[in-house]
Amino acid sequence: MGCFVSKLPVRIPGYEDPILLAAETPFSVSEVEALSELFKKISYSIIKDGHIHKEELQFALFRNQNKRNLFADRIFDLFDAKGNGVIDFGEFVRTLGVFHPNTSFDSKVLFSFRLYDLRHTGFIEQEELKMMVVALLYESDLILSEDLIELIVDKTFSEADSKGDGKIDLEEWKELVSKNRSLIKNMTIPYLKDITLAFPSFIVQSYVADGR
Q: How many CB atoms lie within 10 A of CB 18?
């Protein structure tokens, strides 16, 4: 009698039925299985314990495991939904789904709002906005003067804070993003719309060390 071997082994930390993950995300079952290969490559790239650690995600996204950056830290924190310091497979697929081109505008707005809400207060304060702007500029290797950064932050915050209470709530953030879609441009990864089993290999070869 033959033995059936699943494409997605239960030993993957955070294993969940691909059918369930496909129902909760924009991915198909076969795409979830393809993402499992990417997950395994990243999670065994440095620590090799089947979870994705912060330095592994940073290396996969930015090709550098040592270049600490607030933006990279915040992305990791949002992937790590359980808050236990590592990313399991279910967290990986669900969060990656936010970056899918077919994911709703509202979902992307909410994710970006949480990204900027550094203190988890349910609001974005001006200092938080400035910290994220500086982090994004740093990640893009753009060097602006302190005065110009202050000008950008002041103008953006003033436009967003329509209630004039010194903080930006989700409703105000959504209104700002509606007028400035470029604010969530990095919330979409076009390649996720056409995942095949070759897709993870392409990404892994580009961004993750193969251990050679």
A: 22
